[in-house]
Amino acid sequence: MRDTYRSVGAIVGLALGLALMWLLGLGGMVPAAIFGAGGAVIGGMSGERLADRGGRLK
What we know:
Blueprint lengths: L1 H22 L5 H25 L5
C-alpha cells in the first residue's frame, strides 16, 4: 500500500512541479528536469507520509 501512495504522490508531484515551472514562465530541459525531479521526490515523500498516517484507502 505504501508503494502505491508513493507512486501516486510522485506522479502528482511531477505534474505540480511542471505546472509551477510553466506558471513561473520558465522553459527548457534544465528547468523541466529540476522542477520535475524535485516535484516527483517531494510528492513521493508526501505519499509515503500519508500512507504511514493511515490513509483513507486502507
